[in-house]
Each structure stands twice: as structure tokens, then as C-alpha cells.
Amino acid sequence: MKLLIAACSVLLMSGCANMGQTPWSGVAGASSCSKPSSDQELSLNLADDLANDGKLHASLANLQNLADNLPQVRLRKAKVYRLLGRSEAEPMYRSLLGTCLAAEGEHGLGQLAVARGDNGQALEHLQRAAKLSPIDEKIRNDLGVVYLNQLRMEDARFEFLTAMELNQSNSLAAVNMVTLLIYQNNWKQASQFVSRFNLSPEQFNQAQTRAEQLKGSATRAKGQVATVQ
After folding, report:
1. Structural class in CATH, domain 1-15+37-133
2. 96 to each of 14, 17, 207, how far by Cα in Å?
3. Which residue ranges make up each domain of the chain?
4. pTM of structure
């Protein structure tokens, strides 16, 4: 669950990464975005196709032909920068806050926080993203991952089930749900989810490995509390 694993990426806090004026400062409306022209739409679609094929550098090169005053361009650049592990991702995501793509901006900032292990910051961003776009199954799944990392199992279960019901082909949420069930030693229900969503042996192994990692984290946390007491 790189998930987010990615996905998930880096930095957050209070926007100290980019204190100066950005080229796109003030260009976005509070809640509306200009519609890309047909040529811009073609370029955006090409960049999406390249990114989906794993050609991140080529995707970014195509996006650099487009002006950053379009939030749709900044969102795609932010995603590519995040996947490449570059620091430009955070200010790009932050530039989306207050625009029609605010939910995507909060989501991206949450993914960056998850990748750096900052579950507190991730939770704040992903909760805001879920309020802005409650039917986005990817946001709900990623919020569930943060709850899972915090061992808030009922909250995590709720988000994973929501993600799966919003999109029944969301195998990532199913894998995360199986992780949760294995962590709780509920092997019967875990097996049912594996069959229901036709998860592969590799996906099941990923879930089992992640569950064992969570159990190890929980054990260490208990040990630390005992030591403090």
C-alpha cells in the first residue's frame, strides 16, 4: 500500500515551502475554473495518457507547453511531481486550494503527508478533501488508510466500505479492507472479500504483510507506553 501509498509523497505543514509569490498567485477564482480550450484539452489528455503509461517525464514535458494559470494544468503537474518525488508537488497542490479543484489539492497534500509518515497532517487534509468531494472513492480510500495507520479500525472500515460501494471495481480499497480484517484476525470475512473482489494471491499477500506490519507497530506502541508508565 504504497498506496497511497503512495502515493501517495512529501511535505505539508503550513505552506512554508514556497514563501514567495508564485507565477499563478491570484489567477484562480474562488470556486470556478476556466474551461480549457479544445487544444488545451487534447494536451491535457495526452499528458494523462503518458502518465498512466508510466512515462512521467514525457507527461511533464507536455504539460510544460501549457500555462500554469489553468488549475487543471497545475493539478496534473502536481501529480507528476509527486510521483517523481519532487518538492514542486506541494506548492502546486497548495495553489489549488480555493479553486474548483480544492478537493484535489487537499487530497494531494494528504497523499504527500502519508508518504512522509505524517498521519496527523494527512488526516486534516483528507478530511477536508472528503467534505469537499464526498463521493470521490479515491479520497475515501486514502482517508481510510490514514485511519488504518492510526489503528482507528472502525473509522477505517467505514471509509473502505464507502469507497467500495462508490466504485465496486476499486480493488485498492478491497485490499485495504482485507488488511484490516487480517489485522483483526477475521480470516473468514477476509477470505470472503478476496473472493468477492477477485483479488489475486499477490494482493492477498500484500494485505497480509501490511497487517503484520500494523501489528508490529501496535506492539511497539504498547511497549513504549509501558516504559513511560
Report:
1. mainly alpha
2. 15, 15, 33
3. 1-15+37-133, 151-229
4. 0.80
